[in-house]
Amino acid sequence: MHEPKVADKNTSFWWEAAPVKPLPRQPLPQKLDVLIVGAGYAGLSAGMALAREGRSVAAFDAMNPGEGASSRNGGITSGSIRPDYATITRRFGEEKAIAIEAEGKIAREFLYDFIKTEKLDCDFQLIGRFTGAIGYDQYEKMARSAEALAKRLGIESCAVPHAEQRSYIGTDFYRGGTVRMDIGGLHPAKFHAELLRVALASGLTVHSSTPVISIERDGAGFRVVTSAGTVQARQVLVCTNGYTDGASPFLRRRLVPVRSRIIATEELAPETMARLMPKLMMMGENRELGFYYRPSPDGSRILLGGRDSSRVGDPAAPTLRLRNGLVELFPELEKVRLSHSWFGNVAMNRDMMPRIFEKDGVVYATGFCGSGVVWAPWIGTRAAYKLMGYSERARTAFDFRPPAFIPLYRGNPWFMPAIIQGYRLQDRIALWRSRR
Asked: Which UniProt keywords are present, listed alphabetically (predicted)?
């Protein structure tokens, strides 16, 4: 029996075209209007908005800017919210649920307009997304949801019956699915590099490899200790998400870093790509631990991602699990070589909702739960307007209470492997019970 081969490289495929780099050392400012912790999508978007309004602002990143999830994600502009509409309604009320659903459309449009207006070279294509149904019962529910989405928000969304499935994806694994055309794909590392370029040009200063150690109240402002020295800041914005550390203990007890891993195939023959991904759409499926996958921007490879239950090192098992998932979908790729396998941290919280919140004067823009390509620039920008007191421009359904703390958790997600195994079991049961 063929033994799958572990990938050639364990670094992000996206770094081949857009490697993350340290920035030149900058003089440490003594005082700032706003100090931002984190220079990913959210921190840079906020910093740019603040700098363009004349604020003195600097972002501090513990790594190279973009070295975290901003250059490791799948580059799918989904703007998904993990809880469904009914769950959000039950938890927060129907008014909040309606506002959150509508804001997803606005946030995607904001991103697309930003890419166009700022002339960001990031391989963006508004190509649509297909989501596969595991069984016919699930397909019926998804079809009704697609119809409701089209009616409520005017989004081009439709059901794809099993008989028409192969015009979207070359597999028989699913029992139909849905398509929505307001979702596309981009090159996440190029997007971050371009965002960094325009943010620096706007007047934002970025300090790379300069972790923030502590944030303390100091009169009307804050005393922020960094590895390079101490800065006095009138306001502080924390945008650390899945890489939150001890500098933000309040946030650290509320966000759980979860590994998300992606594999990339070697270049495939054009006729193979045309058969497996005829429309070159973004792809997903309705499982608790569902895969997300897509063609590379040049249409020559397949990239497939999912949750990784490992916590330390870079073991082979998670890569092989994704590879097995790839072959389950596309059996003809059984002997294909993997060029890359890598992981990055997404940030989950107890209600699985992104948000802006304030605690002891510090503003937080965080909790993107695996959908940061859309939510991080949007929420980061709203947080900047909040800091500037622009109440109308800062308006968002995601500005509400902090996420709940997680009992017995202080930054070490010891419980995640068991939770992921539980989800995996649920998926096996759902597949067994599905009417296929």
From this structure: Oxidoreductase
3-state SS, residue 414: coil
Determine the residue type at 101.
E
Q: What is the DSSP string of 83-132?
A: S-HHHHHHHH-HHHHHHHHHHHHHHHHHHHHHHHHTT--S--B---EEEE
**Which CATH code of 3.40.605.10, 1.10.150.130, 3.20.20.80, 3.50.50.60 fits the domain covering 13-128+182-433?**
3.50.50.60
> Is the distance from CB of 185 to CB of 302 less than 8 angstroms?
no
Q: Where do the domains of the chain lie?
A: 13-128+182-433
8 Å CB contact between 237 and 384 = yes
Pair of tokens at residue 102: 């509508």
Cα–chain-centroid distance for residue 349? Answer: 14
Residue 198 CA to residue 186 CA, distance in Å, equals 17
H/E element, 179: strand 177-180
* Model pLDDT for residues 55-96, shown as the tens digit of each residue: 999 999 999 999 999 999 999 999 988 888 888 889 888 888
Query: Phi/psi of residue 391, each to 5°?
Result: -60, -40
**How buried is residue 199: exposed, middle or buried, by Cβ count under 10 Å (0-12/13-18/19+)?**
buried
Six token digits for residue 407: 């009992």
Residues 29-57 as b or e (16 or more Cβ within 10 Å = b)? beebbbbbbbbbbbbbbbbbbbbbbebbb
pTM over 0.90: yes
How many angstroms separate the CA atoms of 184 and 181, rounded? 8
Distance CA 55, CA 205 (A): 11
Least confident of 172-181, 213-222, 281-290: 281-290
Using CB atoms within 10 A of its CB, is residue 24 exposed (0-12), middle (13-18) or buried (19+)? exposed
- Reported as a single tens digit per residue, the pLDDT across 139-152 is 999 999 999 889 88
Give the HSE-up count for residue 65: Cα atoms under 13 Å, Cβ half-sphere. Answer: 31
